């Protein structure tokens, strides 16, 4: 018997992601950087019952650093002490998998990484 796949959380750091968010939230929960287009779509999807958290884009925004900095909050809300089963996959949009981001992901037990055409994935 095949074990079910771990839940997925998406981290969207792209300020013009907008309607693309619709297909993402059908597969899992999402954390999305606030911007006019992202917030409008997120608000609509939240009203439809999807689980989305928006967060403020810092003044010194660097996607990879901001993404690495968000992991503690994501782990708090979706990790083993908050969910059963906990999330085991993270899809990141709008950032590259650089050394800093990878090290931070590894500190949260992510071990497998795959770079895709428009995002990267990390798995525990």
Shape call: globular
Note the beta-strand portion: 15-25%
What's the total helix number?
A: 4
Number of strands: 6
Q: Spans of 5+ residues with little confidence (pLDDT < 50)?
A: none
Estimated structural class: alpha/beta
Radius of gyration: 14 Å
For the largest beta sheet, what order do the strands appear in spatially?
3-2-1-4-6-5
Approximately how much helix is present in the residues? 25-40%
Q: Report on the biggest sheet.
A: 6 strands, mixed
Order of helices and strands: EHEHEHEHEE
Distance from N terminus to C terminus (CA atoms, Å) equals: 20 Å
Number of separate domains = 1
Let me know the average pLDDT. 95
* Assembly state of the chains shown: single chain
Sum up the structure in keywords:
six-stranded mixed sheet; globular; 124 residues; 4 helices; single chain; alpha/beta
Protein architecture, described:
This protein has 124 residues and is α/β, with parallel strands linked by helices. It has one domain. It contains 4 helices and 6 strands; from the N terminus they run βαβαβαβαββ. Strands 3-2-1-4-6-5 form a 6-stranded mixed sheet, sandwiched between helices. α1 (21-25) links the parallel β1 and β2. α3 runs parallel beside α4 (99-107). The longest helix has 16 residues, at 63-78. The radius of gyration is 14 Å and the shape is globular. 27% of the residues are buried. The model has no long low-confidence stretch (mean pLDDT 95).
């Amino acid at each position: 018997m095949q074990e079910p796949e771990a839940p997925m959380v998406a981290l969207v750091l792209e300020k013009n992601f907008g309607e693309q968010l619709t297909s993402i939230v059908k597969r899992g929960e999402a954390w999305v950087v606030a911007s006019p287009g992202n917030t409008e779509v997120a608000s609509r999807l939240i009203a439809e019952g999807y689980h989305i958290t928006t967060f403020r884009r810092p003044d010194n925004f660097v996607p990879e650093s901001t993404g690495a900095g968000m992991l503690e909050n994501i782990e708090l809300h979706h990790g083993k002490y908050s969910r059963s089963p906990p999330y085991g996959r993270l899809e990141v949009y709008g950032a590259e998998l650089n050394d800093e981001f990878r090290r931070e992901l590894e500190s949260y037990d992510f071990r497998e990484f795959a770079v895709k055409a428009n995002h990267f994935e990390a798995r525990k």
